[in-house]
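Bit of a strange request maybe. I'm writing a small parser for structure token strings and I need a real example to test against, not something I typed by hand. Could someone generate the tokens for this chain?
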Amino acid sequence: MKMLPAIDRFFFRRISASGFGLMRIAWAATAFIFLLFQWSDVGFFFSDTGIIPPELYSVSFRGEYRFTMLATYTDAFAVFGLYLLLLGALISTMIGYRTRFSTVVAALLLFSFHERNLLPLSGGDTALRNLGFILMITPEIRAFSLDRAWKQWKSWAADKVLLSPLTMPIWPWRLLLWQFVVIYISSGIDKSMGTMWWDGTAVASALHHTHFARWPIGIMDIISFASPVLCSATLVFEFGWLLMLVPESLAAQLPQYMKRHAVRRSLLIGGVIFHGAIFILMDVGSFSVALLSGYLGLLLTEDFVDLRKWINARKGTRAKGANPIIVLYDAACRLCRRSMFVLLLLDHLHRLRAVNFRDTVLRKKYAPDIAVKDLDRSMHIRLPATCNPQPVTCSGFDALRTLCWHLPTLWPLAPFLYIPGIPQIGRRMYAYIAKNRNRCADGYCVHENHSDR
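Reply from user aminoacidic:
Good idea to test on real output. This should exercise your parser:
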């Protein structure tokens, strides 16, 4: 009887769906970008008028276990139409519109093009196919999607709360992990069968290959001095994935030597360095980017929680619920409610607390020293003492600019808001929008008169 709960936990324990949501976005973006490079060669590679005409089908394709829509649609015009459909499906998958349907369409079309002609493919294309298949059968892939955002908006509009984070059973994660174990172990075995990786010359040889090298020979000569060390590190890294097959029950017996998740996280960090270096130094197509996209799917709930805690600790903030940033907004204004919803949707670090200043009790609790007319004029935020030596209140454009530093998605935008001239323009635009927010003609805002204005 004890075995059944163990089996259920092994396959169906709930984990965060965020990793697979990020992997979906990265997978679709990677496939889209590299497919764009084939824009002018689609007919040449994949149609009857191209490199493999019908009379060569029997010697070019395997006869069994082969699926491709391009066996039916063979002329150049139809093939290019399917190519455009694939690009559209990848965009839809990336943004998460009709997420399940678009992902299935994108994966099947990607299979179709790859099976039509194997000649232009690389290891990265194989990885993309595998990732696409796993995404296609995974029960929940809507994290970070427009579909999910719409459901969140309906919850926020009705109850002023966001839905709980998406979860999924763990079996797709285990299937993805097994793919990586097979990739790296088979690669390590293949390398160990020869002599160049053992004598430390393999990396130097690859760096000097004229087809793959990105940089001039002089730079490659300098890097090649580290070839023996890099060869050994590569073998250790690839065979290190065998540790992921060690049962959790056995690993739990050694807590004094190894923290939980330390092996997996070390391998992921090592893989980022490994594939990042390959991408920078060598032109190997989509391989490195595809593998890094798959890494996102290996992130578990604990990784997101620990990363959030680590970033908040670096920023001097505390855990969720302790001394949050108070955002005072007007819940009687539709534009304000939508703006607050977007801010909460981007609050991946769990730092914000939305407070409706129209609620007298909440206003007296969180902003007793701010006049209602000032709150009505612009959004105010109150930074706790954990963010600054003393609590600080900001409003309008300055509040939005400050919030950018606390919302990871907006970090790249934050520095540009300090460029001379931008603050002045931003403050004027914010004041204009705030003044006219209740007189919109687009059907989203209506004129509202509040007795306490």
